[in-house]
Amino acid sequence: MLRLIAAFKFSQALTLIGVALAALQLLRPEIATLVQRWVETLPIASERNIMQHAAGWITGLAPHQVLGIGVGALLYAVLFLVEGVGLWRKMVWAEWLTVVATGLPIPLELWEVGRHVSLLGIAALVANVLVVTLLARHLRQKQQRHASAAMVAAS
Questions:
Q1: What is the pLDDT of residues 120-131, one digit of tens each?
Q2: DSSP states along 100-145
Q3: What is d(CA 41, CA 55) in angstroms, rounded to the nearest whole number?
Q4: Are 132 and 106 in contact (CB under 8 A)?
Q5: Residues in the chain with pLDDT < 70?
Q6: Alpha-carbon span 50 to 56, nearest angstrom
């Protein structure tokens, strides 16, 4: 179970590294123009409209905002990598870190899903609740086994 959650954390880190690199590349004006041109070549109108909206939003951001997105994504990627490595190595501190780091944004995610229902938002919320629940249960069971072993050793 820990390795499955670690793999999930690694995939999140890789995604965020991709987002960060893309955001940092958009700071170069020729890349932003290239993205706009690419969107215009999309064959299906509905895809083009969605991508034009997204590209327009992204390229319309001020450079410091794009830089903030890139740096923020990299920082979150580092957090996910630390969690993933710790979970892969079955470190208790990583389990606690993951429970806290994954559980803290859940109220915000609930609010956001309530405000704007989206499949991606619901999927992220469900994944995070599942990770927190599984890890909390695992930690509780581990603590109970440790307490039982301590009682047996003491008697």
A1: 889 989 999 998
A2: HHHHTTHHHHHHHHHHS--HHHHHHHHHHHHHHHHHHHHHHHHHHH
A3: 13
A4: yes
A5: 36, 39, 42-53, 55-56, 59
A6: 10
Is residue 77 packed enough to be buried (19+ CB in 10 Å), middle (13-18) or exposed (0-12)? buried
Q: pLDDT tens digit string along 144-154?
A: 888 888 778 77
Question: CB neighbours (10 Å) of residue 68?
Answer: 13
Dist. CA 96–CA 17, nearest whole Å: 24
Q: Which amino acid is at 40?
A: E
Q: Tell the residue number behind the tokens 């930690």, with chain if given.
A: 139
Token pair in block for residue 113? 């899903």
Q: What is the biggest distance separating any 2 CA atoms in the chain, rounded to whole angstroms?
A: 75
Predicted structure pTM score: 0.72
